[in-house]
């Protein structure tokens, strides 16, 4: 399959775990992340999976893709 470079893009998603600094330690953790749109280097911090979807949806819509929500 030949892909037209003008209709594709890459993103980098980084995810890490942060331990809560509460006393006493509860063992609870919080997920954090950052997503980067590679061509523009636009970055956004994420706190939930929906943030990733929202970020990617923006760029898909710019390409003319109709995104079902």
Describe the structure concisely.
With 69 residues, this protein is α+β, with helices and mostly antiparallel strands. Helices cover 20% and strands 33% of the residues. The two termini are 27 Å apart.
What is the first-to-last residue Cα distance?
Answer: 27 Å
Judged by helices, strands and strand pairing, the structural class is: alpha+beta
Helical amount among residues, as a percent range?
10-25%
Rg over alpha carbons:
16 Å
Give the domain tally: 1
Write down the overall geometry.
Answer: elongated
Q: Tell me the series of helices and strands, N- to C-terminal.
A: EEEH
Range of strand content = 25-35%
Mean pLDDT: 84
Spans with pLDDT under 50 lasting ≥5 residues? none
Strand order across the largest sheet = 1-2-3
Enumerate how many helices there are, as a single number: 1
Query: How many strands, which pairing sense, and closed or not: the largest β-sheet?
Result: 3 strands, antiparallel
Strand count: 3
């Amino acid at each position: 399959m030949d892909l037209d470079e003008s209709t594709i893009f890459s993103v980098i998603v980084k995810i890490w775990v942060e331990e809560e600094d509460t006393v006493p330690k509860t063992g609870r953790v919080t997920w954090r992340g950052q997503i980067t749109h590679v061509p523009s280097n636009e970055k956004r911090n994420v706190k939930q999976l929906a943030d990733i979807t929202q970020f990617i949806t923006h760029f898909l819509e710019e390409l003319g893709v109709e995104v079902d929500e």
